[in-house]
Automatic annotation (TrEMBL):
UniProt organism field: Nocardioides alpinus
Record PANTHER family: AMINOTRANSFERASE, PUTATIVE-RELATED (PTHR43799), ASPARTATE AMINOTRANSFERASE (PTHR43799:SF1)
Transmembrane feature ranges: none
Protein name: Aminotransferase
Keyword Mitochondrion in record: no
InterPro entries to which the protein is assigned, alphabetical: AspAT_Ic, PyrdxlP-dep_Trfase, PyrdxlP-dep_Trfase_major, PyrdxlP-dep_Trfase_small
Amino acid sequence: MTATALTDLSADDLASLLEQQRAAYAELKATGLKLDLTRGKPSAQQLDLADDLLRLPTSTKDSKGVDVRNYGGLEGLADLREMFADLLWVEPDQVIAGGNSSLTMMRDTLVYLLLFGGVDSERPWSQEEKVRFVCPVPGYDRHFTLLESLGIEMVTVPMHDDGPDVDAVAALVADDPSIKGIWIVPTYANPSGSIVSQDKAARLAAMPTAAPDFKIFWDNAYALHHLTEEEAKSADILTLASAADHPHRPIMFASTSKITYAGAGVAFLAASTANVAWYLGHLGDGSIGPDKVNHLRHVEFFGSPQGVRDHMVKHREIIAPKFAEVDRVLTERLGGRGVATWNTPAGGYFVNLDVVPGTASRVVALAKEAGIALTPAGSSFPYKQDPDDTNIRLAPTMPPLAEVTAAMEAVATCVLLAAAEKASA
Ligand code: PMP
């Protein structure tokens, strides 16, 4: 039976739907659920896949004879840089293997730009009257809180399935030298699942910018995190930027946080060799070298770039059914009602749910009262302000499948109740 859109219901039918949803919600609350869909964390089952790491490395030296227990090698272990250069489609001398968090590398890069300026800066960014970033929305909440913490202002542009609205980006950056950068999650973006097209990547690499030191923070956190057998390949932003004569514009980030251990993986930065030297120059003031034991552990664990790809298939087998379940429940419960739209991502960690404008906060509050923790409404927008109060980010990877089902049934009830309340108001 096809459900009727709320807008097509008679006043009586709408009133009875509201009553039904109130009853369903009361029942839901009475079951005393305690479920969490807030953050994109790997499940314990996924983490178990990498437990051989706990018995590695077996050697104290890498293939070049470097003793990994000692100081040195600020740029990271060569074998691991080579492995991930292959996976990220860059050259080994363009890659740094660092600590366990790419977000920290992003923060360090921003702090160096603010304090010292980049290789193509006229002065440190902190000496500019104002520094602003373009933020495609919805986007990754920690990108936004990081910028806010550093006093960098945010200007939003819409994110589409094939990347940001590049016309809007190009118009913003063309005349305003205070706009110094943009965040891009090029593959399976958080939370929209978008994949930046080759054409859009080329335009971002080539567009004229008023700031001579404009930077693309190309956060490829989900480069290898496919949910289907069709594996999207990220655009080669470093080559595109070089070809467009802006070699220092992109700085790429990635990590094994959602490949091996979220808390004990390895993060990577990739950029022009001049940018790499610049970053290491500043990093070297505060470090004599990274955790090369962990680097070697990862080299031994994977063996080759193909080893990483094979490992990601095991992740896919665990999490793809959870994403399918989100889609199944939402389709069954909300399909045809005209109360929500959502994506079916081909990779990454999130489902982007858009509910009736003006009801996202209400849905999240209703869910919370019924024991289901969702990411706060507005989180995917700078300053946590979703102008339409419509967007909710769902993160289904961490709970077991049965809990994903229960949580999505509950979310569907909350979405319907909030929509029926609004339509009846
Ligand atoms: N970038 C994006 C887009 C993310 O979604 C995440 C994790 N949620 C990160 C970066 C964090 O990466 P890391 O664990 O390497 O700090």
